[in-house]
Design a protein that fits this description.
The complex is a heterodimer of chains A (about 250) and B (about 250). By secondary structure, chain A is of the alpha/beta class. Chain A contains eight helices and nine strands. Classes of the chains: A alpha/beta (about 250), B mainly alpha (about 250). At the A-B interface, helix 2, strand 5 and helix 3 of A face helix 7 and helix 8 of B.
Chain lengths: ~250, ~250
């Protein structure tokens, strides 16, 4: 990455305070980091550290009250170029799997024939080929989450935001999904920001980690993670991996 | 199907049996409860013009019901889109809902005269409340995260309504419509009782004037069948949309 290049994502002293009546709650403060295009950023921290708030700010769902936020440079269209996957799969119960994946494309008014082909490809990518015509209730929680993942990619966004996408899954499914996520990231070349409260998960997933703390809610650390690619579950046993997790635990005061 | 619905069919037949028994072995006088044969025989009496009166009642009930569904949904949507409208009108609606709508019928006759219009309006006013209340709740109870999901793509208010709120409120709409269908037929008959020259309610009063109990029974049965028709059309519509795609799971 040339030094002169504008970062894909630029945050400088971004802060957000919620006000209800006379009470003020600082959701996040002092968030400063840059992200290169194609990175996989893990936002890690305990409950109440504002990581979901930060993600919603990136998604354009809420506005920060101070600081600078730039996404994607010239030609970046937030509606078109951002995809999101939340903690819950949030599938529409009355739509079949394929039609669920198509939702963002419909909202954006993209040509549906091409979008349908793409949705099929994405379902194959997340391992759900042959499930296009099922209803969500026919899928397991992990499968629903994969549909949600495919949906976040259907309009070919440049930036994908994920809010604890596997938080509700059991530990084993979660590890499998983390491997999937890394594979999808590597295959798609997208910039992905993923929120997690798992320290190990953050280091395993991220090429870059941002540590947020609660009380006061602020950014405590941000660093690049250099581990051999493609990452395998075994890399968690290496000393380098341990160093990264130790660094995060230390920042969280543990 | 037979196995599942068997008990229900049996219960209906048992009621019919009780009717036959009461009017024969039971010894209930005919001018109080006529027998089934006698009752159905009145269908042949030309001066009652059953078909015409059934059509009038069914038409009024269906029109009032349809109006209630349309206006009720429109108001519920307005409540969802314009919070101040909801805050002002929702409590008012709850208050107005406590007015016994049946008691409005004489006023409607004064305002709108005899005939179709007042009866359709009485049907409408009775059937309308459950629609507004259930649809407004259905539209309001959409998961906020589901709305966030489409707001990321800058969905228009219409898209949010069309793709998220309306489909997820449909089960609520249908439960409102089931209640409204039952109320609608009652509203129509009340209207016909109070001021009308046609319809099964009117016919029932005419039969009462000549103490023709069998005709009154026949009118009652036909009123019920019109109600059943309205209710079944809601059930079928529901089966074709909401149940078919497993929205209720």
């Amino acid at each position: 990455m040339p030094v002169s290049a504008e970062p894909f994502l630029h945050l400088a002293r971004v802060a957000k305070t919620y006000r209800s009546g006379t009470r003020e709650v600082v959701a996040i403060s002092d968030v400063t980091f840059d992200v290169a295009e194609g990175a996989l950023v893990a936002l890690v921290g305990p409950s109440g550290c504002g990581k979901s708030t930060l993600l919603k700010i990136l998604a354009g769902l809420i506005r920060h009250d101070s600081g600078t936020l730039r996404i994607g440079g010239a030609g970046f269209d937030a509606a078109r170029d951002i995809g999101v996957a939340f903690q819950a799969p949030l599938l529409l119960k009355w739509r079949r799997v394929l039609d669920n994946v198509l939702l963002p494309a419909e909202i954006l008014g993209l040509p549906l024939r091409a979008a349908r082909d793409r949705a099929r490809d994405l379902l194959a990518l997340v391992g759900l080929a042959g499930w296009e015509d099922k209803y969500p209730y026919e899928l397991s929680g992990g499968m629903q989450q994969r549909v949600s993942l495919a949906r976040s990619l259907v309009h070919d966004p440049k930036l994908v935001l994920m809010d604890e996408p596997f938080g509700a899954l059991d530990a084993l499914t979660r590890e499998r999904m983390n491997l999937e996520l890394r594979r999808i990231w590597a295959a798609s070349g997208k910039t992905i920001v993923v929120v997690t409260h798992g320290v190990q998960e953050a280091v395993f997933l991220g090429t870059q980690v941002v540590v947020l703390t609660a009380g006061p809610a602020r950014m405590a650390d941000g660093f690049a993670v250099t581990l051999p690619e493609p990452r395998e579950l075994a890399c968690r046993a290496t000393p380098e991996f341990g160093d990264y997790t130790q660094r995060i635990y230390a920042r969280l005061g543990m | 199907m037979v196995g599942r619905h068997g008990p229900a069919v049996l219960a209906h037949l048992a009621l019919l049996g009780l009717w036959v028994w009461a009017t024969t072995a039971g010894g209930v006088p005919r001018f109080i409860i006529p027998g089934p044969m006698e009752t159905f025989a009145t269908l042949a009496a030309p001066h009652y013009a059953w078909a015409h009166h059934v059509a009038v009642t069914a038409g009024q009930a269906a029109a009032g019901f349809a109006l209630a569904v349309l206006v009720g949904m429109a108001l519920a949507v307005a409540f969802t889109w314009f919070a101040p409208v909801r805050r002002a009108l929702m409590p008012l609606l709850v208050t107005l809902n406590l007015v016994p709508k049946v008691a409005l019928a004489p006023l409607f006759i004064v305002w709108f005269g005899y005939g179709l219009l007042p009866n359709i309006l009485i049907t409408f006013i009775i059937a309308f409340f459950p629609i507004v209340i259930t649809v407004a709740r259905g539209l309001a109870e959409v998961e906020p995260e589901l709305l966030d999901l489409v707001r990321v793509q800058r969905a228009t208010r219409w898209q949010v309504f069309r793709k998220i709120q309306l489909p997820s409120a449909l089960p609520y709409l249908f439960s409102g419509m089931r209640v409204a269908a039952v109320l609608a037929i009652a509203g129509t008959i009340v209207g016909e009782f109070i001021g009308s020259e046609a319809g099964l309610g009117f016919l029932m009063l005419s039969a009462q004037a000549t103490l023709d109990t069998p005709a009154m029974f026949m009118a009652l049965i036909l009123i019920t069948l019109v109600g059943v028709g309205l209710y079944l059309s809601v059930v079928v519509l529901e089966a074709l949309t909401v149940t078919a795609d497993a929205r209720l799971r």
